[in-house]
Amino acid sequence: MPQLNPHPWFLIMISSWLIFLLIMQPKTSSAYLTNHPSSKTKPIHMPPSWSWPWT
């Protein structure tokens, strides 16, 4: 069964992980955020209570 032989695929797997870890990962992690998180808390708007005409 050739599916169980790791020899042809192991090198491909290792090289793809090395490409990802050494080339792609630093490029993606150096991207900056366009919308910086704000430390301000937004005030909660509480609508006025409803005045029921039958109470």
From TrEMBL:
Compartments (UniProt record): Mitochondrion membrane
Region of interest (Disordered), ranges: 36-55
GO cellular component terms, semicolon-separated: mitochondrial membrane; proton-transporting ATP synthase complex
Keyword Hydrolase applies: no
Membrane topology per record: Single-pass membrane protein
Transmembrane segments: 6-24
Origin superkingdom: Eukaryota
GO molecular function: proton transmembrane transporter activity
Record keywords, A-Z: ATP synthesis, CF(0), Hydrogen ion transport, Ion transport, Membrane, Mitochondrion, Transmembrane, Transmembrane helix, Transport
Stored Pfam families: ATP-synt_8 (PF00895)
InterPro entries assigned to the protein according to its UniProt record, in alphabetical order: ATP8_metazoa (IPR001421), ATPase_protein_8 (IPR050635)
One example of a Gene Ontology biological process annotation: proton motive force-driven ATP synthesis
Family under the similarity heading: Belongs to the ATPase protein 8 family.
Name of the protein in its database record: ATP synthase complex subunit 8
Organism from which the protein derives: Nothocercus nigrocapillus
Top-level taxonomy: Eukaryota, Metazoa, Chordata, Craniata, Vertebrata
